Amino acid sequence: MTLTDPHSSADARQQLIDYISADAVFHGDFTLTSGKKATYYVDLRKVSLDHRVAPLIGQVMIDLIADVPDVAAVGGLTMGADPIASAVLHQGAARGLEYDAFVVRKEPKDHGRGRQVEGPDVAGKRVIVLEDTSTTGGSPLKAIEALRKVGAEVVAVAVVVDRATGAREVIEAAGVQYLAAIYLEDLGLA
């Protein structure tokens, strides 16, 4: 793969698309979390935890959310959102931005402080829920519910890859802005 200027937004996005296409798209017969069948599967963990790709994800996602004002923190339902939030936190810090990250557990802990949302306090703060790939919108909705319970203001859901399978409509129906960085067409899957 030929690397272009990693500081150019368009170049970072194209490099990310190239890495996802090469290393994270699998063809075959798959059953998605929703129970639906698919002939391809986008496994972003194959690239979101890769040292070459994580910085690109951070750059692309920061560019995606740049126009959302006063965002204090980003994160989402563990596990898919965790490396995305970490990439945004680190690339943001490198740019002088102050995005904290948080993790939303699938269920509140049954010991210790019993928290479901981990990380810096998000009560009263504007936050964005991140997701690696979106299918039904179920994971972001679960994260939104947990964040609202602790007093966060969820201002958007931002996904790396939108599968065009209804997540946008579900999230928007819940009254939350939906943003996506990469679409199936970008990966040659439309």
Provide tags for this entry.
single chain, 190 residues, alpha/beta, 6-stranded mixed β-sheet, 34% helix, globular, disordered N terminus
- Oligomerization status of the protein chains: single chain
In DSSP terms, counting alpha (H) and pi (I) runs of 4 or more, how many helices?
A: 6
Computed Rg = 16 Å
For the secondary structure, the number of strands is 8
| Most strands sheet | 6 strands, mixed
Counting helices, strands and paired strands, the structural category is alpha/beta
Choose one word for the global shape: globular
- Could you give the order of the helices and strands? HEEHHEHEEEHEHE
Helix residue percentage:
25-40%
- Separation, N- and C-terminal Cα atoms: 23 Å
Strand neighbour order, sheet with most strands: 5-4-3-6-7-8
Low-confidence residue ranges: 1-6
Mean pLDDT: 92
Strand-residue proportion? 25-35%
Describe the structure.
This protein has 190 residues and is α/β, with parallel strands linked by helices. It has 6 helices and 8 strands. The protein is globular and about 45 Å long. It starts with 8 loop residues before the first helix and ends in a 7-residue tail after the last strand. The model is unreliable at 1-6 (pLDDT under 50). This is Orotate phosphoribosyltransferase. It catalyses: orotidine 5'-phosphate + diphosphate = orotate + 5-phospho-alpha-D-ribose 1-diphosphate.
